[in-house]
Amino acid sequence: MLVPPITDERTFSKVMGELLDVANLVIGEKPFLISYINERTFQSLKVMNHDVFTEGMMVPIEKTYCHQVYKNKKPTVVSDIENAVQDDRREKVKRLNLCSYAGVPILLGDGTVFGTFCVFDEQPNMFDDKTISILEKLASFLAYAIDLQIINAKDPMTGLYNRRFWDKVYDDLPKQDGDHSIAIMDLDSLKQINDQLGHETGDQLIRTFSSIIHETIPWDAYGFRIGGDEFSIVFYNKNTDQSKPFIDEIMKKCHHADIKLSAGMTDTKKTPYEKLVTRADQLLYESKSKGKNQLSEG
C-alpha cells in the first residue's frame, strides 16, 4: 500500500477528526469513516462511532462499496444492504450490523480521487440527497487540506516528491509487506552544463528528466527529487528484477533526449532495510566509476 502523500500527520489527523465531529453533529451519531484508496487497496484513515472498523485497516478495494465511489468519482448510496447485490461486501457489512451506506469521493484539485468520506447506519434507507450534500461539502474541505499537504510534499520545479516526503516513505518502508526496491539516480555533468550553457539550460534538463520519471514509473511507485541533480524512486512490491525494466525505459528515453544518467538500484531482498540507501549510493558511484550513463544493481 502506498503511503498517503501527507507530511504533517498530526495536523492532518486533527483536521479529519474535526470534520468527523461536524458530520456527527449535523448528520447524527452514526459510524463515519475517511479512507485512502489506490487502484488495489482501501485503507481507513479515521473512524468514528464504530468498534470494528479500525484506523489503518486495509482490504482489497473490490471488497468495499467505496470501490464504486473511487471508480466513478461520484457518490454511492446503498439504501438496503440486506437486499443489495449478493456479494462478499453484503455479508461482511451485515456482520458489522450495518444496513445503509453512503460515500462520496474526496476529489483533489487535479481531479484524482484520494479516498472516500463515508457514513453507515444500522437501519435501511437512511441517507437522502441532503446527507450526500453535507458529505460532499465536508469532503471538499478535506480535499483542500490534502492538496496543501501534497504541495508541501512536492518539489516545485519538477512536481516530483521532495526530500521531506522521501524521508517519510523510507521510514515507513519496513512496515510494508513484500519486497521493495529503490533506485538512486544522478544526472551526469549537470554542473558543467550549468557552467557552460547556463542554469536555464540545466533547469530545463532537470524538468525534462522529471517528466520522463512521471510518465514511466508504475502507479505503485513514487518518484523523488532529493537534491539538486539527485533523484530516487521507490518501487513498492517489486524486487530489482521487476523494477529494472522501468529504469531501463527511463534510461532509453534519456538517451533519446540526450540526457546522461547514472543509477544504482537494490531491494529489500538483497539488502537490509537500514542499508538500502547506502547500498544504492554505492551502486550509483559504481556506475560513475565505470564511465557514467549506466545502471548498476545488486
TrEMBL record:
GO terms for molecular function: diguanylate cyclase activity. Gene3D superfamilies: 3.30.450.40, 3.30.70.270. SMART domains: GAF, GGDEF. Residues 178-298 form the GGDEF domain. GO terms for biological process: cell adhesion involved in single-species biofilm formation; negative regulation of bacterial-type flagellum-dependent cell motility. It comes from the Bacteria. Signal peptide: none annotated. GO terms for cellular component: plasma membrane. It holds the Pfam family GAF. InterPro entries: Diguanylate_Cyclase, GAF, GAF-like_dom_sf, GGDEF_dom, Nucleotide_cyclase, Rev_trsase/Diguanyl_cyclase. This is Sensor domain-containing diguanylate cyclase. The lineage of its organism: Bacteria, Bacillati, Bacillota, Bacilli, Bacillales.
